[in-house]
Design brief:
231 residues; mainly alpha; 3-stranded antiparallel beta sheet; 9 helices; 3 strands; 43% helix; 4% strand; globular; binds iron/sulfur cluster
């Protein structure tokens, strides 16, 4: 019961974090729009907290067939992260090597994408929300991302992981299926089932914010707003 209340609170915090980021992006001339899907790859990383939101949305909108679609594509190659954003920050702070990771856009589009539409657009994870370009990728062939937006995006990723520090990060496919399995088949606190081992990375709280010196003053209001989120 208490864990349910805490989880609900975390999901309300997540909604506020998304809103804060939407508001932040208003200041930039962003080319991204609904149904623009060139950046919708199968390599998106999400947290379990975000996945819970998406799985609930799929069920409430009667789109469970999308979960079957994910299961049918489970054998396909996709980016499997070895670290999380907060782990990377700590490795950088300590001058440690970053593990090599392989990710390739040619591995294909997001398994949820249908006719260039995202069926969970309103609930899409931050990994999708933060990929924004100041020019249309379909015309340029690549995204143009403001360096300050990249710094702020990283800060948001760190906060989302911090809020979900009891959970996991991983590839969209794995984490969504894990969230569904957890919802249906095993208690919240039980061990991770075998099929998800080596696919999920444990989340961590924030211990270090790697903000470039040139962004330290400019990012302060965003940092304050994130720290002031209350539910
Ligand atoms: S990042 Fe590029 S492909 Fe993705 S929504 Fe924005 S403009 Fe479209
Ligand atoms: S979840 Fe939606 S926005 Fe994100 S990659 Fe998939 S189709 Fe695109």
């Amino acid at each position: 019961m208490l864990t349910d209340i805490i989880h609900l609170k975390k999901r309300k915090i997540l909604a506020q974090i998304y809103k804060l980021h939407d508001d932040f992006l208003q200041k930039f001339n962003i080319a991204c729009k609904k149904y623009c899907s060139h950046c919708c790859t199968r390599n998106v990383i999400i947290t379990t907290l975000e996945a819970d939101e998406i799985v609930d949305s799929l069920i409430s909108t009667k789109q469970e067939h999308l979960l079957e679609k994910l299961k049918n594509e489970i054998a396909r190659v996709r980016f499997i992260p070895k670290t999380t954003t907060n782990m990377l920050a700590v490795l950088c702070a300590n001058g440690k090597d970053i593990p090599e990771e392989e990710s390739d856009v040619s591995w294909g589009s997001c398994p949820f994408l249908i006719d260039k539409k995202c069926p969970v657009y309103e609930k899409r994870p931050f990994g999708c929300r933060c990929f924004v370009s100041t020019s249309d990728c379909s015309k340029k062939g690549y995204a143009e991302i403001n360096p300050f937006v990249i710094t702020v995006n990283n800060l948001f990723l760190q906060f989302i992981e911090h809020v979900d520090s009891q959970g996991y990060s991983g590839n969209f496919t794995d984490i969504i299926l894990y969230a569904e399995a957890k919802r249906n088949k095993f208690p919240k606190d039980s061990a991770v089932p075998e099929m998800f081992r080596n696919k999920l990375v444990k989340n961590h709280p924030i211990t270090f914010l790697p903000i470039p010196p040139e962004d330290k003053v400019r990012i302060e209001p965003v940092l304050q707003a994130l720290q002031n989120i209350r539910v």
